Amino acid sequence: MSAKERRQLMRDRYVLLTRSKDLTDFDDQIKLQIWTQNFPLLGQAYELKEQFFDIYEAKSINDAYKLYQNWLSNVPTELMTYFEDLIKAMNNWEEEIFNYFNSPITNAYTESLNRLIKTMNHVGRGYSFQVLRAKILFTQGYRKVKKKKKFKKVEVTFGKMLPDQFPSWSQTGYEWVYEEIYGADFSTLTEAIEEGTF
User: Fold this and answer.
1) Transposase IS204/IS1001/IS1096/IS1165 DDE domain spans which residues (predicted)?
2) What is the pTM of this model?
3) Using CB atoms within 10 A of its CB, is residue 10 exposed (0-12), middle (13-18) or buried (19+)?
4) What gap in Å lies between CA 173 and CA 180, rounded to an integer?
5) 78-113 pLDDT, tens per residue?
6) What is the pLDDT of residues 110-129, one digit of tens each?
């Protein structure tokens, strides 16, 4: 590959990183086709990437494991070095990784929040832990507030037992009584940091 082709590949790498089903732009589909046809090894690597992501669309742990074994057997020796770290991680964490299919929960939210906190700490240039925590949880305008309903007590006396005096449903029903503050909403904080308004 020439230096010019390498520079162009760096500009077009998003095409190779994107799933084929998500490439909706016709130009991007053409770019993918050109790269994979002109460089067959790159095309094989792209197909292996697609097959690996397909594992996570499996409906059961057994199906996922079979797909992984099939994927592993399809990795050619000339590409093995490029997938070596992935294969090693899969072997070392096999049980934990495949348990995802029993309960499909990831820690992506936690990792994203950690990244956001690191960004805020960097922007704040050395906030103390207490200040950083307070800023994240209680910054005005970014807090997530949830209203709670609470049953309203109505005093019922003998005089109110008469049909024309009995409390109406609006006097006895639920009403908004107080608010609970859950700290800053993650998506709002991310948006504010990206806009530079935080």
Assistant:
1) 3-136
2) 0.54
3) exposed
4) 20
5) 888 898 999 999 999 888 888 888 877 777 777 877
6) 787 788 778 777 776 777 77
